[in-house]
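Notes from the pairing session

We agreed to fold both candidates in a single pass and log them together. This is the raw record for the first candidate, unedited. Please don't reformat it; downstream parsing expects exactly this layout.

Candidate A
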Amino acid sequence: MVNNNLAIKLEQVGLRFHFRQNRPTTLKEAAMHKIRRVQSEEHIFWALRDVSFEVQHGERLGLIGPNGSGKTTLLSLAAGVYRPDEGKVTARGRTVALLGLGVGFDLEMTGLENIPFNAALYGLSSKEIAKHLDDIIAFADIGEFISQPVKTYSSGMVARLGFAVAAHIDADIILLDEVIAVGDSQFQHKCKARMQRLCDENKTLLLVSHSMEAIRSMCHRVIWLEHGHIVAAGPMPEVVKAYKEKYADD
């Protein structure tokens, strides 16, 4: 039977990266390697392995775990940035992925010029972009810098503009990687308020965060990852409690 309420599904998903050891980093090292006939060795690193779960439309799932556990990689798979080497990933509905605010900006263009450019990458039509333009500018709140090239922006300004664009996209599925922790406290408050509004609109949410406060306030269910594998999955209170007991995180 087809599950019409399914938003995201991962079936025994695995993703690997290839890297080489003993690779020379300077011309001198390259020459010495050639003389000594040193060969670089290829290694395989599995960022995720045998990961399976489902997310229903309107559900809010938190992803927790130590650095390097595969959380951002998992979001990238759900967003279609990566293709799995094993298994299958299914996502149904318009998806917006905030994996790195400001990704897709042209540094030579002004902030104002970048808004339609960046919004179009998310699939917005010219009509949709024009409808939200004033709201995006107001939300970013970077003053006269909106007319300056992005290369002159601070990292906080780039974060403001990136979030402002993404937060005004009418998406079915929202993938967030620690973005509510960027910028100053005032901007963080605006981000959290905006995300709460999206939650109230019953959007599907996948949130990566080290903040248990954010996970508690926004997620129904949690998946705990370590070394590319699922350690635990279930209701938010149970998984967060187990995670805190291991890492004394707050």
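Candidate B (folded immediately after A)
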Amino acid sequence: MAQTVDREDSLRRCSNCTAQHQCLFVSVPANLRCEIQSIIELRYYSRRYTIFRDGHEAAGFYMVRSGWVKLFRETRDGRRVVSGIAGPGTALGLLAVISGASYRFGAETLEDSELEYVPGDLFLGILSRNPLLAIDLLRAVGEQSQRSEDGHDTPGEKLPSAQRLLKSLEALADTCGKVGQDGIRLQVPMTVQDLADRIGCSRQWTTKLLNALEARHVLSRQQGWIVLMRRKSTKVDR
């Protein structure tokens, strides 16, 4: 059963949220935001937990409150191909709920994460009473989806594997990078296998590419984290 949230609790929850500036509901009037908060369920997921899969019925959507989530599509042989990364403030599955369709991608946590689950039927009831909200949300979630999937190569692109890897790392840096003295540190814990799936290469070959880029001081790996030393202008030929 959804918990009851009064106006003060709603505003307090929003003010304490680290994703409040990226949240879809940040500009929603306080009374309407309180109504939405009243149907939200807070859920906690451990690392590598599959939240939902491509093709599953969209009974509700999720808002990432903390942590990072990998978006993926599954091939016929069961392999997961990364299609994007979602961070705090991102809505997952909202378009499917509004359109009455199934999820068009899967979602898996990359680290321990906190998400807000919004039941679809209750949310659609709120939208029916506030139709202008639907237009604003569709626009915002479209922009979020574009950002989360930017930098992912489409099947028609035939870039060399090292260029695909660097392009993906640069896109991740734009999404979840933190500028430091030694470069831009990727704040999301991507494994070599995650990167391999993202660029369509084997894990072994992706490891070789990372080693080559590190040897050329394009990036460095520090305790499992990746730091980009140079960006955009870097030339790679592999």
